[in-house]
Automatic annotation (TrEMBL):
Record's signal peptide: none
Protein name per the record: TetR/AcrR family transcriptional regulator
An example molecular function term from Gene Ontology annotations: DNA binding
PANTHER family: HTH-TYPE TRANSCRIPTIONAL REPRESSOR NEMR (PTHR47506:SF6), TRANSCRIPTIONAL REGULATORY PROTEIN (PTHR47506)
Length: 200
């Protein structure tokens, strides 16, 4: 029996297991893809038994969906929350770009940008996992478009496309060539899009 000031221990443990396993699944997704995630691999990496994982999630697809949700939480904590300390419009766009580069150089995900990795993997696919990946990407693009509109962009969707393309390319080249200079190049090019608005 539980009371308001004594949470159910099983629920607390279940929530902790869910976060731990989802976090590890998100990490695996950036190096080997969401499709590579298995209960056995997660059990070995987290120390949680296979039965414990399946009790919390039920099946592999639920783990993959949770991995995408965990990635979304990480983006909010490491990029968006930091950037929202800046004023809307151009200052926030510059903060978003800087925070995005910082999160990659800090190695938050083992294999670079979660969004870039899973977008390529789940293109033209259907189902809950693909829906989660699309929602994550669309949320990022909408955020860019909103701040670009505030900054006075005459074509926010086009400018968001450019910024996202530069950052995604920078991530891909950094992972391929193991060179942070590629991220700095991407940052400068993305900042250039914002700078053009100030000069317009």
């Amino acid at each position: 029996m539980t009371t308001d000031d004594q949470p159910d221990g099983r629920r607390v443990r279940g929530d902790a297991t869910r976060r731990k396993v989802a976090h590890e699944a998100a990490m695996i997704a950036t190096t080997h893809g969401l499709d590579s995630i298995t209960v056995g691999t997660l059990a070995a990496a987290t120390g949680v038994s296979k039965s414990g994982i399946l009790t919390v999630f039920g099946n592999r697809e639920a783990i993959q969906v949770a991995a995408v949700a965990e990635a979304r939480n990480i983006y909010r904590e490491t990029i968006i929350a930091k950037a929202f300390e800046a004023a809307p419009g151009a200052p926030r766009l510059r903060a978003l770009i800087d925070a995005w580069v910082d999160y990659l150089t800090a190695g938050v995900f083992r294999g670079g940008c979660f969004m870039a990795a899973t977008t390529a993997e789940y293109g033209r696919r259907d189902g809950p996992v693909a829906d989660g990946v699309r929602k994550l990407k669309r949320g990022w693009l909408r955020l860019l478009e909103t701040e670009l509109a505030v900054a006075g962009s005459p074509a926010p969707a086009d400018d968001a496309f450019k910024i996202d393309a530069f950052l995604t390319a920078g991530n891909g080249r950094r992972e391929l060539f193991a060179d942070d200079a590629e991220l700095l190049r991407a940052r400068d090019l993305a900042m250039g899009v914002v700078g053009q608005l100030a000069r317009a």
